[in-house]
């Protein structure tokens, strides 16, 4: 568990003053491509698409104004989409740097999509923020967090296009599972950068050692969350609360679960009216968890969540 005590000043900007365009440009100039969206996501989808699924392009992110590539956005949908069947939505890579969110979605598509194709209409957006995936970044090139942008006034093209695509699909969305990670870099990079960008003061928090869930405080569905935690326990360990009874600064509402007001915060998990909603938080930096376990935990969440909702 990372110590929350070492707060530090970010190297861009002036303390107490929000970033202007110069600071945002400086930040963007420091970002580097570290892995390939095409090779690790697009090609993987094309090579292992189940026979009950279809691969769709639902949008394009054009960042040529920043001298950056243009990215096609992909979704995997039930080929035999049927009116009257409940819809299960899975989103990954809203924060591109959270690797198992993307790879877990791909693993579910490859290994379990067919298992549920006759029970529900499946809609999976495995990597909503491809530039973030390539640069291992929380934000998009505009220094905007897509996972605070799922609302009417969105400044994130990633969020806007995902919302528009999901709205095109008829039928009741019964389940929405949004796949995320909490990493040590939240304290070492992303929270200090956010404070600098916003002209506020950063105070690091304890990074929980283990898996946890973020439910929706407006529809917590405690038994749904519990069923998922029990399934994940078979794959990896669950985070314990800190000395204040909290995870990431929020009071624990049940073992392994905190709640956020998802829609009010503009979170991806708040973009639908789904009854059963949760956000995963895998901890890939734990010495007790491998990348394979992290990916498997994401898959366990999807399967357990759908099984519970259908039961």
UniProtKB/TrEMBL annotation:
Residues 33-311 form the Peptidase M14 domain. GO terms for biological process: proteolysis. Coiled coil: none annotated. It holds the Pfam family Peptidase_M14. Transmembrane segments: none annotated. GO terms for molecular function: metallocarboxypeptidase activity; zinc ion binding. Keywords: Carboxypeptidase, Hydrolase, Protease. Belongs to the peptidase M14 family. This is M14 family metallocarboxypeptidase. It comes from Rheinheimera tangshanensis.
């Amino acid at each position: 568990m990372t110590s929350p005590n070492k707060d530090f000043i970010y190297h861009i900007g002036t303390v107490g003053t929000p970033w202007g365009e110069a600071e945002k440009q400086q930040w963007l100039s420091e970002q580097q491509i570290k892995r390939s969206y095409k090779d690790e996501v697009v090609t993987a989808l094309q090579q292992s698409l189940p026979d009950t699924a279809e691969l769709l392009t639902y949008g394009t992110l054009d960042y040529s104004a920043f001298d950056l590539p243009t990215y096609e956005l992909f979704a995997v949908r039930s080929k035999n989409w049927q009116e009257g069947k409940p819809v299960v939505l899975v989103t990954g890579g809203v924060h591109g740097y959270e690797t198992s969110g993307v790879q877990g979605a791909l693993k579910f598509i490859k290994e379990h999509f067919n298992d549920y194709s006759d029970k529900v209409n499946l809609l999976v957006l495995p990597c909503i923020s491809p530039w973030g995936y390539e640069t291992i970044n929380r934000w998009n090139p505009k220094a905007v967090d897509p996972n605070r942008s799922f609302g009417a006034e969105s400044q994130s093209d990633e969020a806007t296009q995902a919302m528009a695509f999901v709205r095109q699909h008829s039928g009741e969305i019964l389940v929405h599972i949004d796949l995320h990670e909490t990493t040590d870099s939240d304290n070492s990079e992303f929270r200090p950068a956010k404070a600098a960008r916003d002209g506020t003061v950063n105070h690091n928090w304890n990074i929980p050692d283990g898996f946890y869930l973020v439910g929706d405080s407006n529809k917590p569905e405690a038994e749904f969350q519990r069923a998922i935690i029990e399934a994940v326990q078979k794959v990896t360990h669950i985070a314990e609360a800190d000395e204040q009874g909290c995870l990431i600064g929020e009071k624990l509402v049940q073992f392994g679960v905190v709640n956020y007001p998802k829609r009010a915060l503009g979170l991806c998990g708040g973009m639908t009216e789904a009854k059963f909603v949760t956000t995963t938080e895998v901890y890939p930096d734990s010495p007790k968890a491998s990348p394979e376990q992290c990916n498997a935990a994401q898959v366990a969440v999807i399967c357990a969540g759908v099984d519970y909702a259908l039961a």
